[in-house]
Amino acid sequence: QIQLVESGGGVVQPGGSLNLSCTSTGIFQRINTMGWYRQAPGKQREIVAQMTGAGEANYADSVKGRFTISRAGAKVAASLQMNSLKPEDSADYYCTATSSAETYWGPGTQVTVSS
Questions:
Q1: 32, 68, 108 from 29: Cα distances, Å
Q2: What is the pLDDT of residues 71-83, one digit of tens each?
Q3: Phi, psi of 27 (to 5 degrees)
Q4: Nearest to residue 19, comparing CAs of 35, 5, 6, 4?
Q5: Which residues share a beta bridge with 33?
Q6: For residues 3 and 55, what is the distance between their CA atoms, to the nearest angstrom?
């Protein structure tokens, strides 16, 4: 069974850091891009960061310079290092893995930034 699972969410104070991890089980088709999305209550889901198989990373403007995406080589696994967190970063964070045929989603992990 193909699954992505996120971990590392939690409650952190403004200015703090969290590292989200995404692991997988099952056999995937060749994954080209892995990414992180987030959705805050009452808001649309938005992309946070993506990394291609070639190692090219793209970030939402709101997180540039604060978040860093990385991939575990050829494995279907990724992480998102989040620094200088702000209350507006609070959301459910989802890992994605995209092949030429489809995009797989994890169930999400909650991040709350609050004093």
A1: 9, 25, 21
A2: 988 789 999 999 9
A3: -110, 120
A4: 6
A5: 52, 98
A6: 22
